[in-house]
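Minutes, project check-in

Agenda point 3 was the complex the collaborators sent over. CS summarized: two entities, 591 residues total, and the question is how they sit relative to each other. Sequences were read into the notes so everyone works from the same version.
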Amino acid sequence: MSGIDGVKHIVLVLSGKGGVGKSSVTTQLAISLLNKGKNVGILDIDLTGPSIPRMLGLEGKQVLQSTAGWVPIQAHKLLKVMSLGFLLNNRGDSVVWRGPKKTAMIRQFLTDVYWGDLDYLIIDTPPGTSDEHIAVMEQLKEFRPDGAVLVTTPQSVATADVRKEISFCRKVNLPVLGVIENMSGYVCPHCSECTYIFSSGGGKNLALENGFVFLGSVPIDPQLVALVEKQDSNLISLYSESPLAVQFAEIADKVLEPIESKT
Amino acid sequence: MSSIVVQSQSSIPLVAHNLPAPEPEHCPGPESEQAGTADSCAGCPNQTICAAKLPVGPDPDMPAIKARLQNIKHKLLVLSGKGGVGKSTFTSMLGWAFAADENLEVGIMDIDMCGPSMPRMMGAEKEQIHTSNSGWSPVYVADNLGMMSIGFMLPNPDDAVIWRGAKKNGLIKQFLKDVDWGTLDYLVVDTPPGTSDEHLSVNQCLKESGIDGAIVVTTPQEVSILDVRKELDFCRKAGIKVLGIIENMSGFVCPNCKGESFIFAPTTGGGKALAEEYKVPFLGSVPLDPRIGKSCDMGDSFLDEYPDSPASKAILEVINNVRSQIEN
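CS then shared the predicted structure for the full assembly.
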């Protein structure tokens, strides 16, 4: 009996590169899905730099143990969250672990956490193609994850790393559900001129070259950054006012399409 | 899908570790006190070897590493708990800026195995590593600027390096033991994000010959600073001196209207407040400039291409602060 038996679909959010917005995409994808009435879980397997508690304004929450297993944090009636961030005594504490220990923790997250019935479990990952990624794929191989959403920023230094992640997906037979180009342009609040700080088009080209669905270019939105920084636990309801909400609802539809048409 | 650990396709053989089987979960570590006796050691094929504690004592590679590195004056680590904050960008600038002084010999070592960015940023993407009887030769991008990265060893730049920790550690050791760095004034080590195998290994290997310190890079928003706190905690635990904190991507000046705005707002005081909290020097902040990203993509030196931009001036000031911290 495993804690993820009640989970219908599993989607991973991956990127070879760090700081491109994996956690931000995970959060927004989860909110878009729950706005469509889905039961969603977020599992954050970035053990040395967990960002999900901060993204959702859940820092300081404690994970409880029940007879069925660890109880994930209930962020909303349709959203459950689990992250190593909830297990630290002090938010500044470092987790200095070598591979085998990280592997064991991820296994525990996937077997000992009682997720209950979920439509979607979204797994947020650290950058790279190493212990965490190998561990999660090995642990999930019987569950056959539905696929991965790849996040990149437009510049070629970032897409070069994401190409490696694509090789990883091919090697482990993980379907790619699509590519999101994040941080694509920034609109100046003074003159409304859009500047491509990290250039543009990199993600789209990456998707075209590999024959993947291009899920969209998401601009930098300082409002969303501010919303997250405010640590308002109502992010989930406030998000619908963000201009990104409309775009992410479309992205979520594109992600869901191949999954839902299968079942 | 039986196993998803791929073998290295590099022509250079990689020595990872000398145990016959991979470490199990909850492995206390072959060098630890409980090696071979912990609960998780039961049934492990390595148990007898670990329990015999044969390799306990100094790592036989350490004297070799020490001998290799004795002609390197200063060793710097560029660290950050967070990814994509500009570790590699700053490393490349530090490299170019140090190497602008013809009297200095500079080396850059990229230990990000899964996402090596240095070859592209230094404009050396297609280069390969040559071996001679004195070891692996670094790739030279200027007469006095050599570099080493796993990016030079991949037959195809899109190949993924799907390695567990132990294997990454083996290559880091080789970068220090087998690379013919020669005499260097500065060796700058670019690291991956996090606080895991790579960081522990490079620290262990360099400890004996002495690390001058770490430069910690962050961006202004708390989501990033949260992870950088962990890195500072790691430095404290590992006994690495923090030379200072750099705040990157702070503020953006619109090229159209010259109006300034904060893309990643420093709601908790940014890098400066972090430096005060941990009582480490603040080395300066560098604004966002779209041309930095472009220069990195092209492999050009931003400092040489746009010497008059505000970002160049800010970077040079940070580098001066780094140098004065090292010389102290």
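Noted in discussion: Chain B has two domains: 11-51, 62-327.
Follow-up: revisit at the next meeting once the mutant set is ready.
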